[in-house]
Amino acid sequence: MTIAEKVQNTEASAIPRPRGSEESPAAQPFAGGRLYILDGLRLVAALMVVIWHFVGANSSEAYGEPTSSLFPAVVWKLAHYGWTGVYLFFLISGFVICMSAWGRPLGDFAASRITRLFPAYWFAVLLTSAVLWLAPIFNGRRKPSDTVSNLSMFHELLGVRPIDPAYWTLLVEMQFYLLFALIVAKGLTYKRVVTFCVVWTLVSLAAFAYSVPGAAALAPKFSSFFVAGIAFYLIYRFGSSLLLWGIVGFSWIICMNRLIRLSAGNYSANWRPASVAVTLFFVLVALIALHKFDWVRWKALVAAGALTYPLYLVHQEIGLTLIKGFSGHIAPIPLLLGVIAVVLLLAYLIHRLVEKPVARLLKRGLASSLAQLRRG
Length: 376
Prior knowledge:
The protein is mainly alpha-helical. It has 14 helices and no strands.
């Protein structure tokens, strides 16, 4: 399954091997199996962001009065740290992308990302645009040209605002995929992936510290989360080493610095509770890397994980529009629960009726195109 170089005998002893293998990483596939717990964590991360947008953030405008007076204090306070769920997404993404890319040629890696990201995204952009056009009661209508630009997923590079503000994370993910594709093209090996982690971390630090022009392309503000996720996957695949835990620890320190900077900026949140949340994320993924959750085999988590992406795509603008429309007619807590149920149902329908069938068609088309390219 892996596409890796055979290492020299003098180096081999220093490079951990996949668990259960006596051969080099190049020679032996790693049968890690599906990590059901990651599906569950993805949904947790998505729901954290949903609560942040529906109770925290600027949601008071949708309800017509401060949310601090509408919800129990504990709910309101916890909701104000729901934005940390995005960092859990990035941490999981580093782990999962490294895992899914291992042993794949670049073309297959690119095709898998396209079929995973775009079908649900295209539909979400069109649906959200339609809702904003038909019911411009929260953020107003958007120009058709904005919708068209958003379909590319690179709209921000074109100077166009996202149709849904939550889409900002998609460009960060795409930056990670494009950077990681550089080593996927060469073939993933332990040494190459570790080198990628170290180089990306150091370059991101330099770019962030010295305001290097064009540095935003390297996602320096978020690289530490992806790097930690990658290192956790290497621990999961090859076993613990001081080097890998050092990468994780250094990434955690950078993440803590990021939280301190945010708390001093526009976020109305204290960095200490946020740091506890992010540290908990690191601990959870560390336990996954150490195979402590391999016993989890609940198929319901697979279904839950499948809802995560479409839920993230459609929850904010559509959800806040619903809250704005019904806020004078339904009490805040039933309204909140009802809107969450609606966007979850919408996510399920998108997954079943749009994402799966369109992804199958797209996968066949991309497979045919790749075959033509390989034939020359």
